[in-house]
Specification:
By secondary structure, this protein is an alpha/beta fold. The protein has 2 domains: 154 residues, Periplasmic binding protein-like II (D-Maltodextrin-Binding Protein, domain 2), CATH 3.40.190; 154 residues, 3-Layer(aba) Sandwich (D-Maltodextrin-Binding Protein, domain 2). The protein has 12 helices and 12 strands. Strands 1, 2, 3, 4, 5, 6, 7, 8, 9, 10, 11 and 12 form a 12-stranded mixed sheet that branches. Helix 5 packs across helix 6. The radius of gyration is 20 Å and the shape is globular. The protein starts with 6 loop residues before the first strand and ends in an 8-residue tail after the last helix. The relative contact order is 0.18.
Length: 340
């Protein structure tokens, strides 16, 4: 039987499945992975586990987190593969995660693994804030290249910036959380008030602002490093700016949902998620991965990238997420893009 090509219809993604005659278990996987990553990750797992077929349900971080919480009393997912650690901490607070020690987890950086015994989640990779700056469009408009978060509040940038909506996008939330942590809450909200004046739109995807900047729709898009480096490598006229105050960031991570009817298969996915083959897949997309010694230097990402990450209290970001999003929406929702 020929393998089927990847496709996404609504929330549900299928792709490159092992022959159906071999698959004995269908594992439902919720994910905020980028759509173009799902195909490769799914294919690699199913090749190593031909008796398991993965059924991906993917969307942006905020949508997947809300969906999981809404299904708390009737879980539909077996496992989460690729969701912000701060989101998984919220699920854990609700008693929704199954503790498990994946085979080989001891090879990971301990900072990438939940401190509980057994851990409720295990890290995959880091993604962090980056400003995508279209040099061609900026030159047409006489815009200087920003070097800091503070620069983005200058009047010259009014109406020239797009960023992810923090309720929809994990990238948007890591920005907001980082500003509040770096600057303190009062100065952080004051900063976002000034940034809002210059904001053209808050969009519902972490990668979209960089895509919009690359296409020349807006000269400045607040996004994350992987998408920026990928677009630049493909020839987009963008520079990647890593603001000097520090980069907000989060971990992508894996977790098993409590009550999974396919626990044995879910554990196999958790095992695979921390394996060297999986880390080599993550490394194609990210500059920092959970297993030391795997990541290779990307020419478009600074060699000291890891040192530029801001101090991040994940527990604080998870505990205060709902209150922060409510306050953010009260202040800034007027510029939110329509949801598709």
């Amino acid at each position: 039987m020929k393998k089927q090509m990847a496709a996404c219809i609504g929330l549900v993604c299928t792709g490159l499945m092992a022959p159906l005659a071999q698959a004995t278990t269908t594992l439902t996987v919720y994910s905020a992975l980028e759509a173009d990553q799902v195909k490769d990750y799914k294919e690699a797992f199913e090749k190593a586990n031909p008796d398991i077929e993965l059924r991906f349900v993917r969307e942006s971080t905020g949508v997947i987190t809300a969906k999981l919480l809404s299904e708390k009393n009737n879980p539909q997912a077996d496992v989460v593969w690729g969701l912000a650690a701060t989101s998984l901490m919220i699920l854990d607070q609700q008693g929704m995660l199954q503790g498990y020690v994946p085979k080989g987890v001891e090879k990971l950086n301990r900072e990438f693994v939940d401190k509980a015994h057994p851990p409720k989640w295990t890290g995959m990779d880091v993604w962090a804030a980056t400003i995508c700056f279209n040099t061609v469009e900026a030159a047409k408009k006489g815009l200087p290249k920003p070097e800091s978060w503070a620069d983005l509040t200058k009047p010259v940038y009014k109406g020239q910036i797009v960023m992810p909506h923090p309720a929809s996008s994990g990238t948007g939330y890591l920005d907001v959380s980082a500003w509040l942590q770096m600057m303190g809450e009062k100065k952080g909200w004051d900063y976002m008030d000034k940034l809002h004046v210059n904001m053209a739109q808050y969009v519902h995807s972490g990668s979209k602002p960089c895509k919009m900047a690359a296409a020349g729709e807006y000269p400045i898009g607040i996004s994350f490093e992987y998408r920026g480096a990928e677009l630049k490598e493909k020839g987009a006229p963008i520079d990647l700016v890593y603001p000097k105050e520090g980069l907000g960031w989060d971990l992508e991570a894996t977790a098993i949902l409590k009550g999974s009817k396919n626990l044995a298969a879910a554990k196999k996915l958790a095992d695979f998620s921390v394996s060297l083959p999986a880390m080599q897949l993550y490394e194609k997309n990210y500059a920092v991965v959970a297993m030391p010694g795997v990541a290779k230097q990307n020419p478009y990402i600074p060699t000291d990238y890891a040192k530029r990450l801001s101090k991040n209290n994940f527990a604080w970001a998870a505990k205060n997420r709902e209150a922060i999003l409510q306050e953010w929406s009260r202040r800034y929702e007027s510029k939110a893009a329509p949801k598709n």
